C-alpha cells in the first residue's frame, strides 16, 4: 500500500521570536520544500505562511504559530507532505516508494533480493539490497538501469566486487 503522506523533514529549532521554525529537510535539496502551501504535523494540516532557505535549512512561518513559545512546542516534530502535491522530476522517486521493491540483476534477470534501505551518504545515495547476501549499490545511472515502481522492481547492473 502506498503512503499518502511522506515525511520530508524535521523541525529542529525555533528561529527568531515571531514563531518561525527551522526545518532540517529530508530531500535532495531544501528548495523542494518551498513548493508547498501546507505541511502535515502529526497528521494535522498546517498552512505555510512563508518559507525561505537559510544555511541549508528551511525557515518557515505557520498559520497559528505567532510566537517563540508556540514555535518551541513544534521542536522535534516531523513534517510531512501529501505525495500527490509533489512535482518530482522524471526519474526521481520517494525513498519510501523504493523500500521493499525487488532488486533484479540487469544482465541475468536473477532476483537479488529487495531494497531494504537507502543510505544518504555525502557522495550520493546507496541502495542496500538484502537477499542471500547484502549488496551495496551506488544510486547512479551506471548501476541503476531501470526503476519500475508500478511493477515493483529495480534492475541493477552489478560489477565484480559488489
What does this entry show, briefly?
The chain is mainly beta. It has helices at 68-72, 95-98; strands spanning 5-15, 20-25, 38-41, 44-54, 57-62, 78-82, 102-105, 111-121, 124-130, 134-138, 144-148, 153-156. The protein has a six-stranded antiparallel beta barrel. Strands 10-9-8-7-12-11 form a six-stranded mixed beta sheet, with no helix packed on it.
Share of residues in strands: over 45%
How many strands appear in the DSSP assignment? 12
Low-confidence runs: none
Order of helices and strands: EEEEEHEHEEEEEE
Shape: elongated
Helix content: under 10%
In which order are the strands of the major sheet placed?
Answer: 1-2-5-4-3-6
Radius of gyration: 19 Å
Category by helix and strand content: mainly beta
Number of helical segments? 2
Residue-averaged pLDDT: 92
Supply the key terms.
elongated; 12 strands; six-stranded mixed β-sheet; mainly beta; 6% helix; six-stranded antiparallel beta barrel; 49% strand; 2 helices; 162 residues
How would you characterize the overall build of this protein?
The protein has 162 residues and is mainly beta. Helix content is 6%, strand content 49%. The chain has helices at residues 68-72, 95-98; strands at 5-15, 20-25, 38-41, 44-54, 57-62, 78-82, 102-105, 111-121, 124-130, 134-138, 144-148, 153-156. The strands form two sheets. A six-stranded antiparallel β-barrel has the order 1-2-5-4-3-6. A six-stranded mixed beta sheet has the order 10-9-8-7-12-11, with no helix packed on it. Strand 3 and strand 4 (44-54) form a beta hairpin. It is elongated, with a radius of gyration of 19 Å.
Amino acid at each position: 500500500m502506498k503512503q499518502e503522506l511522506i515525511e520530508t523533514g524535521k523541525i529542529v529549532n525555533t528561529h527568531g521570536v515571531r514563531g518561525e521554525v527551522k526545518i532540517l529537510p529530508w530531500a535532495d535539496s531544501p528548495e523542494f520544500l518551498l513548493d508547498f502551501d501546507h505541511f502535515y504535523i502529526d497528521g494535522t494540516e498546517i498552512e505555510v505562511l512563508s518559507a525561505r532557505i537559510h544555511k541549508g535549512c528551511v525557515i518557515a512561518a505557520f498559520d497559528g504559530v505567532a510566537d517563540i513559545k508556540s514555535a518551541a512546542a513544534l521542536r522535534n516534530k516531523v513534517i510531512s507532505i501529501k505525495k500527490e502535491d509533489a512535482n518530482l522530476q522524471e526519474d526521481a522517486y520517494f525513498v519510501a516508494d523504493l523500500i521493499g521493491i525487488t532488486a533484479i540483476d540487469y544482465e541475468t534477470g536473477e532476483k537479488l533480493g529487495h531494497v531494504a534501505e537507502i543510505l544518504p551518504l555525502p557522495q550520493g545515495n546507496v541502495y542496500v539490497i538484502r537477499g542471500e547476501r547484502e549488496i551495496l549499490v551506488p544510486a547512479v545511472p551506471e548501476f541503476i538501469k531501470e526503476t519500475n515502481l508500478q511493477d515493483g522492481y529495480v534492475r541493477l547492473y552489478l560489477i565484480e566486487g559488489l
